[in-house]
Design brief:
Layout (H helix, E strand, L loop, with lengths): L3 H42 L17 H9 L7 H11 L4 E4 L6 H15 L10 E4 L3 H14 L7 E4 L5 H8 L4 E4 L1 H10 L10 E5 L1 H5 L1 H13 L5 E6 L6 H6 L6 E4 L12 E7 L5 H11 L4 E5 L3 H14 L5 E4 L5 H13 L3 E5 L14 E4 L6 H8 L9 E7 L1 H13 L5 E2 L11 H10 L1 H20 L13 H7 L7 E4 L4 H7 L2 H4 L8 H5 L4 H7 L8 H6 L6 H9 L1 E4 L22 E4 L6 E4 L2 H8 L1 H4 L10 E2 L5 E2 L7 H6 L3 H45 L21 H4 L11 H9 L12 H14 L12 H13 L1
Parallel strand pairs: 1-6, 1-7, 2-4, 2-5, 3-4, 5-6, 8-13, 8-14, 9-11, 9-12, 10-11, 12-13
Antiparallel strand pairs: 15-16, 17-18, 19-20
The structure holds adenosine-5'-triphosphate.
């Protein structure tokens, strides 16, 4: 047995060990505290004007951040980093402006990490930092950089960009210290996620701030900021920064430091970027693009268009033409997963061509892009700067070319000049010019889905020009739209009705996300209403043209709502110009030559045939049934004529036919005359039958007496006088083998054997006969009926069956 002192020994040992641990912990805490204080002192004393900012190691940064930067192989801060980081570390609000590709992301991520580190932020303190990006692509990229340079920190960080289940996302948000988000999705969480605590927020960052502050995001950002505490640090960064006082007050910025590192430089685009423009008619843009791609097969090219429809059409046609370089296309309407996958594939490619909308115009850091091509001119100079900024990043070389219609040249050059953009005109070499007009026309002619896409592309382009605010550059009247339609393979230019009103501008500035289904967080009403694929199909105006094949063609992961949204404020009128146009003028349909019109089953609605497939569909009774409407209830009279069961006359019509009494009298007279007429006919028939029977009976009697040959044996005899009571029974169905004499006679006149059907054979016939004999009910007539009562009894028996 262990003695008492032995027992006490391990206890004392345990206590000693515990104490040692506690001491070590408090020592560590003390040391951390001291180092934090030292860090804070270093920050306070750091004077960017005199201090060395040429190395990250010279900046007053915590060791986890410094290690993260070192591990990411960044040694020398860029200009914007060298100036913005120290100021932000000192707690200043910042308005940071620097050229594209100059390292703004790190300029705001480092202060974010440092702020939370110095505040010893834990997951129990709620959300400490919020970084807002205008697009999902940019948010993903920022998050990736954060995880790279923040890898030695122990903060929890999350990405909130939509496209995922809100509930799943919400569950994890409560534990996050840093969030990178898009405005709409974040607002949705702030409105609905109960565990998300933002009262403690330390720092708010707006990347591409001018974009986030503009009309498209206005309401979402304002509502989002409402949720945040006013006591916080705010950092705004962009390549095209504005100093609008209204924006600053909206964000409650306090005495912000404006850091514009390239303000005094000769150009507002990177020096290593060569910029060109070429003048090409709108109708030749696709030809020029094709020629350009063919001449640059060993390059990484990024091509910008003004809308998703343009992107899709150009992508589809170029894909069919196989220029000899991998092609990708990216637009806001694609599903999140596909967008990310395309972005990653293109980023990893050495030689490739990406057709895109402005969804990747800002911030996205594709490595080593050689050429930025702007097929559709940018809406303003800021957009131009951001687009071309996808190349020549961080001191690398890059080239850009802008396609301009001659009507756009003067206005656009004026705008570019005013913002210090050095751009030179170039011409396409004659031997490099290629025409794909014929191929495009053939493709579009053969493929209705492509034709549909072409008309959509046309409409969206015209619409985008119409919506442009800068009318000095964009003038719809100066564009040759017929030629443009022809270059898209269309037989004519669709006529477009533009909706009027303020909303157009607003919609134009809406981020695509706000218009698309997947991002319908912008419109909670829309979100609530669940629309199935079938709903969407029926909502489509061109359902018959938009086929499954089309869906496959565009690899359709697109959100159709985005498409619908465009059509919401644009009414497309189509013009009739066919040969056999019996369609009303207001039918609003374009009939390219060679199209036909087919009338609907009811003959009322004409259907326009512009393809073989449509013609086939219109000839299929089954498919056309859906246009036929519901069936009518009709009844057949004795003559087999169909009538509606009730037909209630209008009061007016009724009065026109005379007084009610007169009409009643006329009706009775008419009916009496009809009955009389029918009576005469019936009587004659009965008389005739009676005569026949009499003849037969006489013949039988003669045969029995050996005077005449055998004839049919009548079993029932009608009374001689008056009406035959069996005359009406004869028309009734008779069960089993029981038949009246009249029927028996009729049967004799008919062929004995029914004509064989193709599926019946003799054995089947036999079986039927046997079955009938076995199963059929036979009424035995024991005695010959004599009296009227006998006949009635017999008739009753027959009827009972
Ligand atoms: N200090 C640095 N040293 C080396 N490379 C850097 C440094 N800072 C940033 N970079 C690199 O420069 C590139 C551009 O950086 P970043 O994307 O932050 O530019 P940006 O200014 O945000 O551009 P944009 O205006 O287009 O959004 C990135 O590939 C990044 O890794």
């Amino acid at each position: 047995m262990p003695s008492r002192t032995d027992k006490r020994k391990p206890q004392a040992q345990q206590q000693r060990q515990q104490k040692e641990k506690q001491d070590a912990k408090s020592l560590k805490r003390k040391r951390e505290q001291v180092s934090l204080e030292q860090l804070q002192d270093a920050v306070d004393q750091f004077d960017p004007k005199t201090a060395d900012t040429t190395k990250f190691s010279s900046l007053p940064l915590s060791s986890p951040t410094a290690s993260g930067i070192e591990a990411s192989h960044f040694q020398t801060p860029t200009d914007i980093q060298a100036r913005a980081i120290p100021a932000a570390l000192k707690g200043r609000d910042i308005l940071g402006a620097a050229k594209t590709g100059s390292g703004k992301t790190i300029a705001f991520l480092v202060p974010v990490l440092e702020k939370l580190y110095r505040a010893r932020w834990t997951e129990y303190d709620g959300l400490g930092a919020l970084i807002i990006s205008p697009t999902r692509e940019l948010a993903v990229q920022t998050f990736q950089v954060l995880t790279k340079i923040g890898r030695f920190h122990s903060f929890s960080a999350g990405l909130v960009i939509g496209g995922k289940n809100l509930k799943d996302e919400a569950e994890r948000l409560g534990r996050m210290s840093i969030l990178v988000c898009t405005p709409g999705r974040m607002l949705q969480h702030l409105d609905s996620t109960s565990g998300l605590q933002v009262d403690n927020l330390q720092i708010l960052v707006l990347d591409e701030a001018d974009r986030i502050m503009d009309m498209g995001f206005k309401s979402a950002v304002d509502a989002l900021v409402e949720h945040l505490p006013k006591e916080r640090q705010t950092l705004l960064f962009s390549a095209t920064q504005s100093r609008k006082v209204s924006d600053l007050s909206r964000l409650s910025l306090k005495d912000p430091e404006y850091i514009a590192v390239h303000e005094s430089s000769a150009a507002s685009t990177p020096e290593s970027l060569q910029q060109h423009y070429l003048v090409t008619p709108l109708a030749s843009k696709l030809n020029t693009l094709y020629g350009f791609i063919k001449s640059n097969l060993k390059s990484k090219i990024l091509v910008f268009f003004s809308s998703g429809k343009q992107v899709r059409f150009a992508f589809e046609t170029m894909r069919h033409l196989r220029p000899g370089v991998p092609l990708y296309h990216l637009l806001g309407a694609q599903k999140q997963a596909q967008r990310l996958q395309i972005t990653a594939s293109y980023a990893a490619s050495k030689h490739a061509c990406l057709f895109a909308t402005d969804v990747v115009a800002r911030g996205v850091d594709f490595p080593s892009v050689d050429w930025v091509v702007q097929v559709d001119a940018p809406e303003d100079v800021d957009t131009y700067i951001h687009r071309v900024g996808r190349t020549a990043r961080f001191n690398k070389d890059g080239k850009a070319v802008l396609f301009l219609d001659s009507s756009e040249e003067e206005g656009m050059l004026k705008r570019l000049e005013s913002k210090k953009i050095p751009i030179k005109r170039v011409n396409v070499r004659e031997n490099k010019k290629q025409s794909i007009d014929e191929s495009v026309q053939n493709m579009v002619f053969k493929d209705p889905s492509l034709k549909y896409l072409a008309s959509k592309a046309f409409i969206s382009y015209v619409r985008s020009i119409h919506l442009q605010r800068d009318k000095e550059v964009f003038d719809l009247k100066k564009l040759d739209l017929e030629a443009y339609a022809a270059s898209l393979g269309l037989p004519g230019a669709p006529i477009i009705n533009f909706a009027k009103g303020e909303d157009i501008k607003k919609l134009k500035n809406m981020p695509h996300a706000a218009l698309s289904d997947s991002d319908s967080e912008f419109d909670p009403e829309k979100k609530r209403k669940v629309r199935t694929k079938v709903d969407k199909m029926f909502e489509r105006t061109n359902q018959d043209v938009l086929t499954d094949h089309y869906t496959k063609l565009i690899g359709d992961t697109t959100d159709k709502a985005a498409e619908d949204s465009e059509d919401d404020f644009l009414a497309v009128k189509r013009v009739i110009e066919g040969d056999d146009l019996d369609v009303a003028a207001d039918d609003q349909a374009v009939l390219p030559s060679g199209t036909k019109i087919i009338r609907g089953l009811g003959g009322e609605e004409p259907f326009i045939v512009d393809s073989k497939r449509r013609e086939k569909m219109l000839k299929s009774k089954k498919k056309m049934l859906k246009f036929k409407g519901k069936g009518d209830h009709i009844v057949f009279d004795d003559e087999g004529v169909a009538h509606h069961p009730y037909r209630i006359q209008d009061e007016e019509d009724f009065k026109r036919d005379g007084s009610a009494e007169a009409q009643r009298r006329k009706f009775v007279e008419d009916e009496a005359a009809r009955v009389k007429e029918a009576d005469v006919g019936d009587k004659a028939l009965v008389k005739e039958k009676r005569r026949e029977k009499k003849e037969k009976r006489k013949a039988r009697e003669a045969m029995e007496s050996g005077l005449a040959p055998a004839a049919a044996m009548p079993r029932l005899e009608a009374p001689e006088d008056g009406e035959d009571p069996l005359a009406f029974l004869a028309s009734l169905p008779v069960a089993g083998g029981a038949r009246s004499d009249v029927e028996e006679e009729d049967r004799e006149e008919r062929p004995r054997k029914k004509a064989k059907k193709w599926f019946e054979d003799d054995s089947a016939d036999e079986k039927k006969t046997k079955g009938k004999k076995g199963k059929g009910k036979v009424i035995e007539i024991a005695e010959q009926p004599d009296t009227l009562e006998d006949y009635e009894a017999l008739a009753a028996g027959l009827l009972d069956d």
